[in-house]
Amino acid sequence: MNFTIAVIIILAAFEHIIIGLFPPLIQYIAKDLNVNIASLGFVSAANILVTSLSSIYWGYLSGKYPQKRMMIAGTLIWSVSIFLTSFSSSYFQIMFFQVITGFGLGCITSIGLRILTDFIPNQKRGLILSFWGMAQGFGGIAGSILASLTIANYSWRWPFEIVGFFGLFVIICFLFIQEPIKGPIESTPKELLKNTHYDYRLETRHIKFLILKGSNVYLFMQTFLMNIATGSLIWIPTLYTFKIMQQGYSMGTAVIVSGYLYAIFQIGGIASFYFGHLGDKFQRKTFRGRAYFTAFFVCITMPCYIALFFIPMSNLSLPNDQNNEITILVSILRQIFINPWITLLFVLSLFASAAQSANSPNWMALLTDVNLPEHRGITFSIANLFNSLGRTIGNAAVGILLGILSTRFNEPYSYIYTLSILQIFLIPSAFCYLKMSKNNVIDIKFVLKTLKERAGKV
């Protein structure tokens, strides 16, 4: 079981590795394919949108066919298509391969998350699901670093080939994972521990009920609004690139440094597992506890990120040699300790990324708690649709706002104002948690009562 959980958590990183590849490479791809940067922004948005739409289809399939088989099929699709992306010679080809990649990636959130929740006891949901959230966060970081480092010595195509090969390795790992058995892991109420067969299945008539269920509605809206804000954060490396170039460094050096800084400044995301554990504790005290706890941290995420955008990268002292990545990394780490501006950026990034990390494990735990086991696959798929729609709108909004603001402001200021405006969506996102807390109590009690009744029939 532990091996299965580990493989599924590792898989969670790949969707965000692929998303993280694009921003650092976008200028190089645009130049090579002779297209403008805004057009490539639509490629990234299309990938995210297709991923979300296809996840509903994968979630439906997971209720009818073996989940392990579906995961292998989906992973085969995205790993082959992401590899073929490296051979793109036109805008149409890169768009086509990224759309197919998005279709394959749709299996990760819908089926992968369902497999994971079927293996996790509800007392530890926040803790274990925090590793899923951390994997997604570090996946984005890994994608950014991979792109930044390989572009210095290779072409933009190389990162896509590497990720494609890793996808094939994951397929081999899938051959050894367990097919989950729904029911026994639901250790509250305790009677379900005796239940070795859980034959309840999703029915088409349940879908409307799940979409309109009180807790689900607010959780769908919460992830939609939050991802408009956080979905735009994949453009932070681009912001850093312009800030570093403003200090007189070449684009090649700036791209490498921005990739490193983006990774270092996300270290606060490690706090995700601790906040997931705290969410479990608050939830044991009251069914409203997790919602209130997460709302607080979502709120304080906004001022931390806005401050992070506005702080300048003054007095940078770095080697202007893009072929010496290790020397550049050592210099960056040294700057954190001797340059007050970089020190301040580092501290703010810790608070921002840590506060943001509280959302993912607790949101997933709440969505799991308020839905019956047979409903979770399709519910996660619908939630992922709202999640990805938010990210798509966030990415599209970056392009639109940049187009407007760049007529009055130069880089990096146009990026600073654009990303800051989009963080405002974190406020209504936090409010959704407060509104759903009442429905949360009713829906969790209903789930526990239903499971107890079913256990008594065994």
UniProtKB/TrEMBL annotation:
It is found in: Cell membrane. Its main location: membrane. Keywords: Cell membrane, Membrane, Transmembrane, Transmembrane helix, Transport. One of its GO terms (cellular component) is plasma membrane. It holds the Pfam family MFS_1. One of its GO terms (molecular function) is transmembrane transporter activity. The chain crosses the membrane at residues 7-30, 36-58, 70-88, 94-116, 128-152, 158-177, 217-240, 260-279, 291-312, 332-354, 392-409, 415-434. The keyword Transmembrane applies. This is MFS transporter.
